[in-house]
Amino acid sequence: MVFYAYHGVHDHEKKFGSKFEIDIEMKLSISKSSISDRLDDTIDYDKIYSMIESCVFNKKFNLIETLAGTINKKIMTSFRQIESIKVRVRKPHAPIKGIIDTVEVELGNDRSDYE
Questions:
Q1: Distance between CA atoms of residues 59 and 79, nearest Å
Q2: How many domains are contained in the chain?
Q3: Containing structural domain, residue 54
Q4: Taking a C-beta distance cutoff of 8 angstroms, is the pair 86, 24 a contact?
Q5: 3-state secondary structure of 78
Q6: At 99, which CATH number?
Q7: Are the C-beta atoms of 17 and 6 separated by less than 8 Å?
């Protein structure tokens, strides 16, 4: 997923914004949906996208770590069938004194972290 949002430590990042890329990996049983072909038997990816979009746009974060944690918690507490999750947030062209392609964080949790 790619969003143009207003996160960062510096005032100019919050004012002018930049591109953010987000990847999600979820582990869950799909044995029922692989047979039934019914959306009710699996995760609705449109709902996942909407949750992530609301996390990205409803608050300005200083750190991409906090954005990743917010997305992680929102998804894991909303979808009990997810066994584990990995959230990656990338910020291409972050304002760092040096030549870089992107800055990225990855946060992973298991269901046991939310029980």
A1: 22
A2: 1
A3: 2-114
A4: yes
A5: helix
A6: 3.30.1130.10
A7: yes
pLDDT tens string 20-67: 999 999 999 999 999 999 999 999 999 999 999 999 999 999 999 999
Question: Would you place residue 70 in the very low, low, confident or very high pLDDT band (cuts 50, 70, 90)?
Answer: very high
C-alpha to C-alpha distance for 20 and 1, rounded to whole angstroms: 8
- Please say whether the beta carbons of 78 and 99 come within 8 A: no
- The answer to whether 22 touches 71, Cβ cutoff 8 Å, is yes
Q: Are 92 and 7 in contact (CB under 8 A)?
A: no
Beta-carbon contacts of residue 12 (< 8 Å; ≥ 6 apart): 95
Backbone conformation region of residue 11, classed left if phi is above 0, alpha if psi is from -120 to 50, else beta: alpha
Q: Which of 94, 65, 87, 101 is CA-nearest to residue 1?
A: 87
